[in-house]
């Protein structure tokens, strides 16, 4: 819908929004393009020990491919189709070749490499710990408790189901109003003249919405109207609207199954955050450098 603003995604989902957690990102080189025939569509999981390629006789296994998919697959966007899988396998082949060349030059013995390996090992162990803490925290009891604690504080919120016709000028809106007074069908006129590409084809139907999901001028009129009534022309930043209210209701509280995924994600992230906080509180940490200080407020001009 042209003029609908970003609103809340649902009471429970909104209430369960978790604080963002530390994002650890590793730079990933551009994937090399290695021509290879597209594999047939898989109907069953591939054995992790399956050899998918050899490099000078050395095997590259499906287990290594899956590890790379987990690490860099999301950066490719979308589902893992045969083309993306080929890119990843080509990237792994390049890694194997470059790593072997680096070994010959004894680059693995440098202090820089040893430091990098120690960091990557620590990072991988941290992620393994957080994955375990998060998984252990997502129990049915925890999910139900979070849901119950959230919905008990929810207050009823009114929703309106309305249609509208959006035009550019007041004169056009008044012309629409006259046609409606003569008995023409609202949905038919909306399909004919409405400038809203989202709802026009649907006879102006906007479905149910809460007051904060619409621009104020539109929302004020829609929530004042009784079901079956049509508004006078209403001006907003998008143009002129003629609104028809179909019905009103109290917004239903989402069921547990409707918000289960959000709750599980929240419980997982909360457990990970609490795990890091506990580790910090239990440790004796001494900074030897000078930690960054927040900027002092600037004097008023």
TrEMBL record:
<dbReference type="GO" id="GO:0003755">
    <property type="term" value="F:peptidyl-prolyl cis-trans isomerase activity"/>
</dbReference>
<dbReference type="InterPro" id="IPR046357">
    <property type="entry name" value="PPIase_dom_sf"/>
</dbReference>
<keyword id="KW-0732">Signal</keyword>
<feature type="domain" description="PpiC">
    <location>
        <begin position="157"/>
        <end position="247"/>
    </location>
</feature>
<comment type="similarity">
    <text>Belongs to the PpiC/parvulin rotamase family.</text>
</comment>
<protein>
    <recommendedName>
        <fullName>Parvulin-like PPIase</fullName>
        <ecNumber>5.2.1.8</ecNumber>
    </recommendedName>
</protein>
<feature type="signal peptide">
    <location>
        <begin position="1"/>
        <end position="32"/>
    </location>
</feature>
<dbReference type="InterPro" id="IPR050245">
    <property type="entry name" value="PrsA_foldase"/>
</dbReference>
<feature type="region of interest" description="Disordered">
    <location>
        <begin position="268"/>
        <end position="301"/>
    </location>
</feature>
<keyword id="KW-0413">Isomerase</keyword>
<dbReference type="InterPro" id="IPR027304">
    <property type="entry name" value="Trigger_fact/SurA_dom_sf"/>
</dbReference>
<dbReference type="InterPro" id="IPR000297">
    <property type="entry name" value="PPIase_PpiC"/>
</dbReference>
<keyword id="KW-0697">Rotamase</keyword>
<feature type="compositionally biased region" description="Basic and acidic residues">
    <location>
        <begin position="277"/>
        <end position="290"/>
    </location>
</feature>
<dbReference type="Pfam" id="PF13616">
    <property type="entry name" value="Rotamase_3"/>
</dbReference>
């Amino acid at each position: 819908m042209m003029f609908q603003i970003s609103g809340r995604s649902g009471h429970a989902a909104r209430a369960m929004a978790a604080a963002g957690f530390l994002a650890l990102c590793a730079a990933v080189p551009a994937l090399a393009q290695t021509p290879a025939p597209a594999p047939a569509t898989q109907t069953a999981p591939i054995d992790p020990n399956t050899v998918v390629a050899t490099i000078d006789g050395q095997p590259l296994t499906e287990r290594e491919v899956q590890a790379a998919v987990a690490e860099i697959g999301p950066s490719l966007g979308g589902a893992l189709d045969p083309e993306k899988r080929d890119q990843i396998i080509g990237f792994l082949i390049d890694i194997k070749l470059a790593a072997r060349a680096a070994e010959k030059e004894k680059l693995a013995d440098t202090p820089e490499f040893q430091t990098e390996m120690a960091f990557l090992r620590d990072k991988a162990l941290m992620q393994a710990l957080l994955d375990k803490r998060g998984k252990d925290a997502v129990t049915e009891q925890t999910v139900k408790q979070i849901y119950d604690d959230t919905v008990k504080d929810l207050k009823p919120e009114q929703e309106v189901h309305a249609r509208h016709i959006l035009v550019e000028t007041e004169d056009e809106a008044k012309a629409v109003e006259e046609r409606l007074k003569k008995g023409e069908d609202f949905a038919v006129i909306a399909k004919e003249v409405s400038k809203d590409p989202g709802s026009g084809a649907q006879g102006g139907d906007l479905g149910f919405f809460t007051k904060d999901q619409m621009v104020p001028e539109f929302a004020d009129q829609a929530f004042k109207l009784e079901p079956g009534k049509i508004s006078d022309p209403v001006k907003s930043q998008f143009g002129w609207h003629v609104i028809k209210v179909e019905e009103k209701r109290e917004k239903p509280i989402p069921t547990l199954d409707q918000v289960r995924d959000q709750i599980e994600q929240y419980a997982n992230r909360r457990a990970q955050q609490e795990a890091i906080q506990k580790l910090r509180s239990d440790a004796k940490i001494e900074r030897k450098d000078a930690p960054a200080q927040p900027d002092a407020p600037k004097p008023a001009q």
